[in-house]
């Protein structure tokens, strides 16, 4: 079963432009590691004041987290990105605030038979 994962982080407002620049594009080897971990449909959205919202899908989030935790590429990426986050202890990929899904159109349409 596909897990939908959403999370929130805070980027230092003065560093938003540099954060965006570092994602344009992300290192090819990091993109490959994200895909190899089993994460897909991965997106980041930037809100006002540096509020960052992320979303991805995976069949096994614990396995994806374990894979990335052991990846030297992901460790280098997370170390390079650490300076951007406000109030974060540890790696962003492990310490992001998870969000609870309260609505999904597909799931509700499927359940209703519509």
UniProtKB/TrEMBL annotation:
It holds the Pfam family rhaM. Gene3D superfamilies: 3.30.70.100. SUPFAM superfamilies: Dimeric alpha+beta barrel. InterPro entries: Dimeric_a/b-barrel, Rham/fucose_mutarotase. This is L-rhamnose mutarotase. The lineage of its organism: Bacteria, Bacillati, Actinomycetota, Actinomycetes, Micrococcales.
């Amino acid at each position: 079963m596909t897990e939908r994962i959403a999370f929130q982080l805070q980027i230092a407002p003065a560093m938003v432009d540099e954060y965006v620049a570092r994602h344009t594009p992300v290192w090819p080897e990091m993109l490959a590691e994200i895909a190899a971990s089993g994460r897909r449909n991965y997106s980041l959205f930037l809100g006002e004041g540096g509020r960052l919202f992320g979303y991805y899908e995976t069949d096994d989030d614990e396995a994806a987290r374990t894979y990335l935790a052991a990846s030297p590429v992901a460790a280098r990426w997370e170390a390079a990105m650490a300076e951007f986050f406000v109030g974060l202890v540890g790696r962003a990929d492990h310490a992001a605030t998870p969000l609870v899904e309260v609505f999904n159109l597909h799931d509700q349409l499927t359940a209703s038979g519509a």
